[in-house]
Specification:
Helices cover 31% and strands 24% of the residues. It is built from twelve helices and 16 strands. A hairpin with a 4-residue loop joins strand 5 and strand 6.
Length: 407
C-alpha cells in the first residue's frame, strides 16, 4: 500500500511538472505588469551633450567624450577629416598593447631597429640600424616623447613589415567605426591620404585607455633611455599640470598644426578631449583644459543600485525548471548632469509569461533609466542559464528519481 501511494504521488508530481506554473501557483518570484520591451522600438540613450560652439575652444575641430560610455559631451566639427600628426601613435600604441595582452610578445622582448625605422626623422630617439631596445623602452619613447623611429620599430615588430602594420592600423580603425580615418604611416608624419577626425581619435583613445598599462607610460613626465644618456620629456604638458591627467598624446606638424588627445579622471569620471588644428601649442593645451574643465564641472557618474523590488528570477512554463534566474546587464554606473544622480529611478520591464525553451543570455526584459520622467538610457535583462522544454524522457527521468527518493 505504501509503495502504491508513493507511486501515485510520483505520478502526480510528474504531471504537475507538465502543467503551467500559473496553475500550480508557484511562489518565490515576482514580475511587473510591464510588457516586454521590443528591441526595434527601444529608444537610444538620450543625448546630454552641450550645444555646439558654446565653449571657447581655439581649434578647427574638437570633441569631448566620457570614456566608458563614449557619450559625447561637446563637439565642434568633429567629423572633419584633418591630418592627425602624432596622435596617429594612439593607434600604434593600441595595436602594441593588444598584441601584448594577447600574449604575442612581452615587455622585455628585444626589438632590432630596421633602416626603415631609423629613417623616420622628426621627433626621435636616434635609433641606429641594428640597435636593440626592449618593447618597454620603445613604448616609453613613443608614449612619452613621441619618437617616430620608436613607433615605426614597434609597428614592424607587431606585424612583420611596415606595410603589414599599416594594413592592421586601417583594419582596426574600421572595426572601431572610425569612418573618417585612413592611415599611411605609424607615426603621423604628414603624408597624402593620412587623415583622421576628432571623433575618430577620441574613439581610439578610449579604446587604448581600456588597457591600464598604457598609463604607466602616458602619465610619466620625465624618464630616460640608454642608461640615462637619452632624456625623455613628455610632450603633453597636462600630464604635469592638470589634476587627474592620464595622458594621452600630442601631435604637431606643418599640415596638422597643433593637436592633442587629452585624457583625465576625477571622482570616478573619466574624459577624453580631442582638439585639432590649433595654431599654437598653448592653444591646444588651453582648449583641451577648457573641455575637460567643462566636463568635470557639469557631469558625474551616478551609481546604479538594483531596486529592492527587482525580481531575481522569472517563472517558466513547461520547462525542466520552474524558474530561470535573471541577469541585470547594468554597468553599475551612468553618466548624468552633476547634481541629478539622486533623482534617477529604474523601471523594470519583464515578460508577463515565459514558456520553455529558454536560451542562456536570452533577452527577457529591460530596465529603463529615468530622470525626472524622461528615459535617459537603459539596459537588458537576460536569462542566466538555459531552461530546456520539458519532454517525456526528461519527465520520466525526474519521475524515476522521485521514486528512488521515496523508497
Amino acid at each position: 500500500m505504501r509503495r502504491m501511494c508513493a507511486a501515485a504521488m510520483a505520478l502526480l508530481l510528474f504531471c504537475s511538472l507538465l502543467l503551467p506554473l500559473s496553475v500550480l501557483g508557484y511562489e518565490g518570484v515576482t514580475t511587473t505588469d510591464f510588457p516586454l520591451l521590443d528591441e526595434e522600438t527601444a529608444q537610444p540613450t538620450a543625448g546630454i551633450a552641450a550645444p555646439e560652439g558654446d565653449l571657447a575652444v581655439a581649434a578647427k575641430s574638437a570633441i569631448l567624450l566620457e570614456q566608458s560610455t563614449g557619450t559625447v559631451l561637446y563637439e565642434m566639427d568633429a567629423d572633419v577629416q584633418m591630418p592627425p600628426a602624432s596622435i596617429t601613435k594612439v593607434m600604434t600604441l593600441l595595436l602594441v598593447m593588444e598584441a601584448i595582452d594577447a600574449g604575442k610578445f612581452g615587455y622585455d622582448d628585444q626589438v632590432s631597429a630596421s633602416e626603415y625605422a631609423c629613417a623616420m626623422g622628426g621627433s626621435q630617439i636616434w635609433l641606429e640600424p641594428g640597435e636593440t631596445m626592449t618593447v618597454d623602452e620603445l613604448l616609453k619613447a613613443t608614449a612619452i616623447s613621441s619618437a617616430n623611429d620608436a613607433a615605426a620599430a614597434l609597428g614592424e615588430y607587431v606585424a612583420g613589415s611596415p606595410d603589414a602594420f599599416i594594413n592592421m592600423m586601417n583594419e582596426r580603425a574600421a572595426q572601431l567605426g572610425m569612418k573618417n580615418t585612413h592611415f599611411v604611416n605609424p607615426n603621423g608624419l604628414d603624408a597624402e591620404g593620412h587623415v583622421s577626425s576628432a571623433r575618430d581619435i577620441a574613439i581610439m583613445s578610449c579604446e587604448l585607455l581600456k588597457h591600464p598599462d598604457i598609463t604607466k607610460y602616458s602619465t610619466v613626465w620625465m624618464d630616460s633611455l640608454r642608461g640615462g644618456a637619452t632624456q625623455l620629456v613628455n610632450t603633453n604638458k597636462l600630464v604635469r599640470f592638470y589634476e587627474g591627467a592620464t595622458g594621452l598624446k600630442t601631435g604637431t606638424t606643418d599640415g596638422a598644426g597643433s593637436c592633442l588627445s587629452a585624457s583625465a579622471t576625477r571622482g570616478g569620471l573619466s574624459l577624453v578631449a580631442v582638439v585639432m588644428g590649433c595654431e599654437t601649442s598653448n592653444d591646444r593645451f588651453a582648449s583641451a583644459r577648457t573641455l575637460l574643465d567643462y566636463g568635470f564641472a557639469n557631469y558625474e557618474m551616478a551609481e546604479l543600485k538594483l531596486p529592492e523590488t527587482a525580481p531575481a528570477a522569472l517563472k517558466v512554463k513547461n520547462g525542466t525548471e520552474q524558474a530561470v534566474q535573471l541577469v541585470y546587464q547594468s554597468s553599475g554606473k551612468f553618466l548624468v548632469k552633476k547634481g541629478s544622480a539622486d533623482k534617477i529611478t529604474q523601471e523594470i520591464k519583464l515578460a508577463e509569461t515565459l514558456t520553455a525553451p529558454v536560451e542562456k543570455g536570452q533577452k527577457l526584459g529591460s530596465c529603463d533609466i529615468v530622470l525626472e520622467g524622461q528615459r535617459i538610457g537603459g539596459y537588458d535583462i537576460v536569462a542566466k542559464k538555459a531552461v530546456p522544454k520539458m519532454d517525456f524522457l526528461t519527465g520520466f527521468s525526474n519521475l524515476s528519481k522521485q521514486l528512488f527518493i521515496m523508497k
